[in-house]
Amino acid sequence: MPEKRSPHRHDSTEETRRAILRVAEDLFMEHGYRAVSTRKVAQYTGISQPTLYYHFSDKQELYVAVMLAVLNRIQIELEHIATASDITVEEKLKAVIRHILRFSKDRLKVGPMLRDIEAELHETARNNVSEAFYKGMILPVVTILQQNKTPESSNGEHTSGLSYITLAFMFYSMISTLTEDSNPLEQRKSSFEESESEIATKLTRFYLHGLLAGQS
Fold first, then answer.
1. CA angle, corner 37, sides to 31 and 41, nearest 5?
2. Is the overall model pTM greater than 0.85, yes or no?
3. Given this model, what pLDDT does residue 65 score?
């Protein structure tokens, strides 16, 4: 939970916008879309609601701005991993998992985020965030999977018969089992008692050599 900030005058409107986004990200990531109001965001930012509405017309626009900023940061890191020339596909997938797990401990929850996008946003906003999710999180994993030395089928699919996009979504579904709030408490606790590196190694081995055994 972000600390409440004392009301003060910001040096510029751009500074105010950045402050709103920082606070809103903390609140949305901790509580989800529905539980956060613009009143709460304004209160913790130390501004009035009219000031918040000067920058963002409503909660939905604010949420979309937060999600686009978060996904852009993730995209930069994952594209760096995907295009690295000195590590194997397995090491790249491990690096992606470690990055997502670090972010997920108190920030991004992939499953709840996707549900919020689908349930809470109007079509245009939903499409904008979904496109950013696809570009920022799915395509880098697709790029990594395509670097495997496995011949593709004639239609460009993985030899499992599944598209690389489907395999990338399956990859994130696997990770989300460790970050979902619906998981039993003891399961979540025991999962995070292991280091991110240990978890990443186990998940990657299962994904490449278990789930896709004989196919990759």
1. 85
2. no
3. 96
